[in-house]
Amino acid sequence: MFDHTFAEASIRKECVQNFWKAIDIYLFKTHVINKKLFGVKNVAIIPFKRATASEDMGEFLLDRMIETRVDCFEEESRRILIAQGYQAQENKPTSCSIDLLSQHDHDGAVVLNRLLPKNIAVFQPIDVVCLIVSQEKLSIRCKSTDKRDERSFHWMQTVLLEKMQRWMESSIPTDATGTSTAAVQSLALVDDLQEYNCLFNELKQKYGLSMVSIWPECTDPQKFVFEDIAIAAYLLMLWKKERTATGIVQLQSFVDIGCGNGLLVYILASEGHRGYGIDLRKRKLWDLFPSELKIDLRVETIVPSDASLFPTIDWIIGNHSDELSPWIPVIAARSSYRCRFFLLPCCAYEFDGSKYQRQNCSLSQYGDFLNYATEIARVCGFHVEMDRLRIPSTKRTCLVGSK
After folding, report:
1. Poorest-confidence range of 39-43, 91-95, 254-258, 394-398?
2. What is the distance between the alpha carbons of residues 302 and 175, in angstroms, rounded to a whole number?
3. Pairing state between β 397-402 and 340-344
4. Are 399 and 386 in contact (CB under 8 A)?
C-alpha cells in the first residue's frame, strides 16, 4: 500500500477547484516538468463511480492494476473495479481530461500513460495513476517498502510538488485564443504520438546533423533546422493519416509558398513527396542541398490572382508566409476543389499587406489573427482544425484546412 507520505503541501481552500486542472497538466503534458520526455501517449482512461465500494479502496486498486499487463489493461481494470464495487465506464472518454470527468459525476478515473523519452534508445516506461484528493492537501505517496531513489525523491519534492502547487494557486494558463491549456493537447491531429516521436528522431538523424554542420546563415541552426524537421514530421504523419482514411496510395503533392531556406521542401521531397518551394529571394542554403535530388526551389513573386493558382497540387503550405498568410486558404480554395492547406502563421497581416489590427482586445494580436484566418478558411469552404506543434517557438499554432 502507498502508506508513506514523503511530500505534502497545504492548498488554499479557494484553489482546490484547480486541483484536477493541475492533474491534467501533470498527466497529459508531463514533458512540461520532465525535460527528458518528448511527450505522453494516453493508453487508457477508465472513469468510475462508487456503487457499493468502501471509501478507502483506491490504494488497493492501484496495487492490483500495476500488476496488469498493458495489452489487457482496460478489460482487466474494469473487471477489478466491478469486483470491488465500482461502476466502470465502458467507452473511452472523448477527451483526456480528468477535470472534465470530475464535472460529470465521476468519483475517479484510472489512467495508463506511456511516457515518451526524447532519446528513444533510453527507456519507454509505463505509468499507472489512481487519483485521490482529500483534506485540501496535495501529497505524494509511495510504499514504505519501496527502495529509495534519492534523485527521484528530490525531484518530486522540489520540482513536481512545487509545480503542482503553483498550478493550483495561480490561474491555469491559456493559449493564444484564450482557451485553457490544461487539457489542450499539442499534436492533436497526429494519430500516434509514439510513431511521430520515432519519425521525428529518424528525420533528425537523416537530415538534422548534416544541415546543422553546413548551415550558412547567421541564424541559430539548432532552432531553424529542428523546427523544420518537426514540421516535416507533422506533415508526413498528417498525410499518412489522410491516405489511410481515403484509401489513396499515391503520395500527396505540395507547394511551399514563402519557403525561406527551403529545408522543409528538401525534407518532404526527399521523403518521396512531389513538390516545390517559392520565395521572393534565393537563400544560401539552396545551393548546399545534394544536386542529385534536384530539389525544386523557385525565385518568384506571388501576387494573389488567377496567375498564382496551383490546380495540380494537393496541399498548399504557408510556413511563416507573412503577408501571404491570409491568402493561403483563398489560394487553396481557388486552385482546385480538392486542394487542402497547412498554415503556420507568424506575423499577422491583412489582405492588402498592412499589419493586422486585432478586433478582440481580450486576445493577443496573434490569437485574434488565428481566429481571423480560421474564419477566412471557413468562408472559403474548408473544414478547419487548429493544432499546436511541438516546435521551439512561441507561435506554434497551425491551421489545417480540408474539404
Report:
1. 91-95
2. 32
3. antiparallel
4. yes
Strand-pairing partners, residue 263, are none
User: Higher pLDDT residue, 115 or 137?
Assistant: 115
CA distance 80 to 158: 34
The HSE-up count of residue 216 (CA atoms within 13 Å, CB side) is 11
Q: What is the average pLDDT across 216-221?
A: 86
Contact 143, 121 (CB under 8 A): no
Q: How many angstroms separate the CA atoms of 301 and 307, rounded? A: 11
Residue 183 pLDDT > 50, yes or no?
Answer: no
On whether the CB atoms of residues 241 and 193 are closer than 8 A, the answer is no
For CATH 3.40.50.150, the residue range(s) in the chain are 193-402
**The C-alpha cell that represents 117 in the structure block:** 523519452
Half-sphere CA count of 59, side-chain side, radius 13 A: 10
Cell numbers placing 347: 506575423
Q: What is the crossing angle of helices 221-246 and 193-203, to 10°?
A: 130
Residue 204: per-residue pLDDT = 93
CA distance 204 to 233: 10
Of 141-150, 255-264, 364-373, least confident by mean pLDDT is 141-150
Binned at pLDDT 50, 70 and 90, residue 112 comes out as confident
Tell me the CATH class for 193-402. Answer: alpha beta
**Position 204, amino acid:** K
Other residues' Cβ atoms within 10 Å of the Cβ of residue 93: 17
Mean pLDDT of the chain: 84
184 is written with which cell numbers?
A: 489542450
- Cβ–Cβ under 8 Å, residues 59 and 1: yes
Instruction: Quote the DSSP letter at residue 355.
Output: B
Burial label for 324, CB within 10 Å (0-12, 13-18, 19+), is buried
Please give the DSSP secondary-structure letter assigned to residue 354: S
pTM of the predicted protein model: 0.77
116: left (phi over 0), alpha (psi -120 to 50) or beta: beta
Going from the C-alpha of 144 to that of each of 6, 9, 141, the distances in angstroms are: 10, 20, 9
Q: How much is the pLDDT for 168? A: 79
List alpha helices for 156-275, DSSP H: 161-169, 193-203, 209-214, 221-246, 263-270
Report the 10 Å Cβ neighbour count for 250: 8
What cell does 310 get?
A: 496551383
